[in-house]
Amino acid sequence: MARVTVEDCIEKVPNRYELLMVAAQRAKDIEQGAPLRVERDNDKNSVVALREIAEDKVSIEDLQKSLVLNLQKYVEVEEPEEEEIEIVAAEKELADLDAQFDTSMLLDEGLDDSMQIRDGDEDSLDDLEDTDLADEGFDDSADDFADENEEF
Fold this sequence. Notes:
Eukaryotic RPB6 RNA polymerase subunit, mainly alpha
């Protein structure tokens, strides 16, 4: 009976080695108390496992996953790469800088009087417009420069 069962299972799992490993995993599961999906008929666990595989009563993918997990000695923990750590550190540093220079800290009270524009100070703005640039140390050489360049 086992010979016929193996030949039936080859259709489901074409690699004989893989079939052996999957069937052994299922037999171990049955030994540990997993419910049977077919009648035992006085067969050993390995034959029952092969019959379950042949009749598509168990998922091959699930058996493969549990096989890998049971054979795995070292569980690889995915650690962030060095670049990712640097990026996270830079983002944290930028967030700290943003917190330091929060716009709520910059109030008009902290600014110099010369930098503030107050309501009703429009007269002082008019005074600035009337100020002669020559008095401030600027000359009208820009007009001379424009006249000189018209020649080209």
